[in-house]
Design brief:
single chain; mainly alpha; disordered N terminus
């Protein structure tokens, strides 16, 4: 028994061992140091910004894809973009609140919830983190491969509400918006990250009955991205679907990596 314990301790002592890495990135049993997480997330954010700045795509092809999506939505009678956008543009309260919601909460709420899960709900962290990373990575690939123009750049009857009132310097030629990839609309990462936030809160607050209120956040985000003219409803649906697919894959990987550890623990229990 002592020999089995010694071998187990030696196999998990090295920070670069497969057992330790599997524990860190495949389950909630252990987590890497906080600075490793910062490096990983920081690298991902730099990659995101690089794609946003340097990958612009063809304007003609991006607008053509947007026209096709609008035609499909119209055929399915799933086309509330114009009505919602004009409602927002004609109401000062909605115009400014959706503008600041769009420009600030997307980059504030997601990292806050990620940190909350990391320190207060560690058993759920690895799978939720992997879901967020996978979602963002697939979205970046899609922006690179399939550029798509948002409604405000592809439809003449859509008002660019952020630029009209220069919210968060959206109309400034040298402002933050000038560095963004204007054809990164499919899927909506705003909606995807909001769905991830709701998923994280819903999972971590089980079994509290009011945890379903978390889903009002992605619903509000969907209204905002459509109201500001930044996304079609198809972009929002694609963002939500992408999160669920990445969650499904992460859960399967989590189970696969966790299974040998459970077998080992069961065998050790029987020997002891």
């Amino acid at each position: 028994m002592s020999q089995t314990r010694t071998l187990t301790q030696k196999s998990t002592r090295s920070p670069f061992s497969w057992t330790r890495m599997r524990s860190n990135f495949g389950s909630g049993a252990g987590l890497p140091p906080w600075w490793v997480e910062v490096i990983i997330i920081g690298t991902g954010y730099l990659l995101y910004q690089g794609v946003q700045i340097f990958v612009t795509g063809s304007e003609a092809s991006a607008v053509s894809r947007a026209d096709w999506i609008w035609q499909v939505q119209s055929y399915l009678h799933l086309n509330p973009e114009v009505a919602i956008n004009h409602w927002v543009a004609g109401n000062d309260l909605l115009l400014y609140s959706t503008g600041y919601f769009y420009g600030i909460l997307h980059f504030a709420v997601t990292p806050f919830v990620l940190i909350w899960v990391r320190f207060w709900h560690r058993s759920h962290y690895a799978m939720l983190r992997n879901t967020l990373v996978g979602t963002s990575l697939v979205a970046l690939i899609m922006y690179w491969v399939i550029p798509l123009a948002p409604p405000r750049l592809s439809m003449g009857n859509i008002v660019d509400t952020l630029r009209v009132e220069n919210i968060l310097s959206a109309a400034d030629p040298t402002g933050p918006a000038s560095m963004a990839n204007q054809y990164a609309a499919m899927p909506s990462l705003h909606v995807a990250w909001a769905v991830w936030v709701a998923l994280a809160v819903y999972v971590c607050l089980r079994p509290r009955p009011w945890r379903w209120l978390a889903w009002t956040y992605p619903a509000a985000t969907t209204f905002v991205v459509i109201g500001t003219g930044n996304h079609f409803i198809a972009d929002a649906l694609a963002g939500g679907l992408l999160v669920w697919l990445c969650w499904f894959v992460a859960s399967r990987v989590h189970s696969t990596l966790r299974r040998p550890q459970l077998v080992l623990e069961h065998s050790y229990t029987q020997v002891s």
